[in-house]
Design brief:
This protein has 105 residues and is α+β, with helices and mostly antiparallel strands. The chain is 21% helix and 13% strand. A hairpin with a 2-residue loop joins strand 2 (41-42) and strand 3 (45-46). The longest helix is centred in the first third of the chain and has 12 residues, at 2-13. The structure holds iron/sulfur cluster (SF4) (2 copies).
Length: 105
């Protein structure tokens, strides 16, 4: 029984490790990964024309157009804001929301 258990241990010991030391190392993300949205800039200016459609459609009320801010703790990365924007001024990135201990209002 013990020999059988050791055999399993030794077998895994010499295999390539599947764990990583997050956050220093990160796993590769798929191209279709949905991360935090951001406002697109062109020539140093935001492309946004402030039509407000993204604010209206956002189910999590995560977009603040006054400050051009997306509340990362509220956003559920649904991608509706990107879909509805008529000038492609907001797009999803492959970045995760930064961890926090505070709840955003
Ligand atoms: S991805 Fe969805 S939840 Fe996040 S800001 Fe856009 S519409 Fe709102
Ligand atoms: S939908 Fe696009 S253009 Fe309209 S307010 Fe949102 S980011 Fe700006």
């Amino acid at each position: 029984m013990i020999i059988k258990a050791f055999k399993v241990t030794l077998n895994y010991f010499f295999r390539k490790k599947v764990t990583i030391t997050y956050p220093e190392q990160k796993t590769p993300r798929s191209e279709r990964f949905r991360g935090m949205p951001c406002f697109v800039e062109e020539n140093g200016k935001k492309k946004c024309i402030r039509c407000g459609q993204c604010v209206k459609i956002c189910p999590a009320h995560a977009i603040d157009l006054k400050k051009y801010q997306i509340k990362s703790q509220r956003c559920i990365a649904c991608g509706l804001c990107e879909e509805v924007c008529p000038v492609a001024a907001i797009k999803l990135t492959n970045k995760l929301a930064p961890p926090t201990t505070r709840k955003e209002k």
